[in-house]
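stage 2 :: seqdesign
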């Protein structure tokens, strides 16, 4: 497998693994298993961080892959990509706030924002997989471009 596909494959898998941890973490707090919730959510956060580090270093050192599919799908792809990136970024910020509330034991706030964080992350993962499939599975990945060009289809 080429490095240009290997890194996105690893980072997309990390989002999926992270979302699986978050889903089980949520299940366990509903069942009142606090210790298990804490451990699973910290693993979820670790995989999310690993995803972000791979994604950011690839963006800085290699660039992002542009869409290689048909011209008529380009606009829909970029709108969807933009939705996914916005959701992922918001979920990241909310995730940090959720963790801070937990570490400071502000449980009411943690619980309230934690639900939003978990839902956003559970949507980020499948939309990320769709972007991956559109970019590398259904169509051959296009050229590698600077981030802004790849996001906005320039
Ligand atoms: C980003 C990571 C995390 C997310 C997304 C998250 C999400 C949530 C959610 C959604 C709930 C409410 C469950 C419900 O009633 O539906 C909750 C409750 C709780 N979380 Fe987390 N959590 C995270 C990390 C942590 C960590 C690291 C700890 C421990 C230090 C923790 C401790 C708790 C506790 C004790 C509750 C129960 C609060 C109560 O019932 O008053 N969470 N969390």
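stage 2 :: out
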């Amino acid at each position: 497998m080429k490095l240009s596909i290997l890194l996105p494959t690893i980072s997309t898998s990390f989002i999926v693994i992270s979302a699986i941890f978050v889903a089980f973490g949520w299940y366990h707090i509903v069942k009142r298993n606090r210790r298990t919730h804490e451990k699973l959510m910290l693993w979820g956060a670790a995989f999310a961080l690993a995803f972000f580090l791979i994604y950011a270093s690839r963006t800085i050192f290699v660039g992002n892959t542009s869409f290689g599919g048909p011209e008529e799908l380009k606009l829909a792809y970029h709108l969807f990509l933009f939705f996914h990136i916005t959701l992922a970024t918001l979920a990241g910020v909310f995730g940090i706030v959720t963790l801070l509330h937990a570490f400071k034991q502000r449980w009411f706030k943690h619980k309230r924002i934690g639900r939003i964080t978990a839902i956003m992350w559970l949507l980020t993962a499948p939309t990320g997989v769709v972007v991956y499939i559109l970019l590398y599975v259904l169509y051959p990945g296009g050229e590698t471009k600077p981030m802004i060009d790849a996001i906005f289809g320039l």
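stage 3 :: structure notes
- DSSP finds five helices and two strands in the chain.
- The chain has a mean pLDDT of 93.
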